[in-house]
Design a protein that fits this description.
It is a multi-pass membrane protein. The structure is a single chain. It is globular and about 65 Å long. The protein is built from 11 helices and no strands. Helix 1 packs across helix 8, helix 8 packs antiparallel against helix 11 and helix 10 packs antiparallel against helix 11. The protein is mainly alpha-helical.
Length: 219
């Protein structure tokens, strides 16, 4: 096989959608975790951070169990769409979302906790609702942390390999991303093409991490 830009394009697409999903979910969850009341938050937060410490194969296995053909979710998806989610681009997006979420959540949490509570208290006195506090105060006042989390989450999604390989597979021209392409070409003995993808991965990661560090330095 020859060098193809498809894995690069797919990685960027998967990382973009995964980051959007993680950010939207992360904003709501972060607000609830930092401002809401209720028990069990420590348990939920522990679950949120599990993808950081769990082996990628375990994450892939859990995703197969949750979204597989024999699971309620998997059966529902297959009934609606007529096909399974396994070994598809959406599967790669789901896997990337799971592994990128902890980084995005942690950065957002840091930002939300740094918001001046006197500003929030004054807004509450003026009659601001929780939704208004969320939209007009927490998000604008935490934008640097949110943006930093987006960059880190995107970079992590771009480098996702283990869970993606198990859940989405490594189908050239369909589900092959940069990390799985590197694995494939090394396994097939084509170190030259593997090196091209490695250099692309290093370049993207370096640029995005440099941008993330820049965001932290101006906070």
């Amino acid at each position: 096989m020859e060098f193809s830009l498809y894995p690069v394009r797919l990685s960027l697409i998967v990382s973009s959608f995964a980051t959007i999903i993680s950010v939207l979910f992360g904003l709501v969850v972060t607000y609830w975790m930092t401002q809401g009341k209720g028990r069990g938050k420590m348990i939920f937060e522990t679950i949120f951070f599990l993808p950081i410490v769990l082996p990628p194969t375990v994450i892939g296995f859990l995703l197969i169990v949750i979204f597989g053909k024999n699971s309620p979710i998997g059966k529902t998806i297959e009934w609606i769409t007529g096909s399974t989610v396994l070994f598809t681009v959406p599967a790669a997006i789901i896997a990337a979302s799971v592994v990128s979420f902890p980084l995005i959540y942690q950065s957002m949490k840091t930002g939300f906790l740094s918001v001046d509570q006197t500003v929030i208290a004054a807004a509450k006195v003026d009659g601001a609702s929780n939704f208004q506090l969320f939209i007009y105060h927490f998000i604008p006042l935490s934008w640097r942390s949110i943006l930093s989390g987006i960059i880190l989450g995107f970079t992590r999604a771009l480098g996702e390999f283990g869970a993606t390989l198990m859940f989405a597979g490594n189908i050239p021209g369909r589900t092959q991303t940069i990390p799985t392409a590197i694995y494939f070409f090394i396994e097939s003995g084509n170190w030259t093409i593997a090196t091209y993808y490695v250099m692309i991965s290093i370049l993207f990661s370096f640029l995005f991490l440099l941008l993330a560090n820049r965001m932290k330095s101006i906070q």
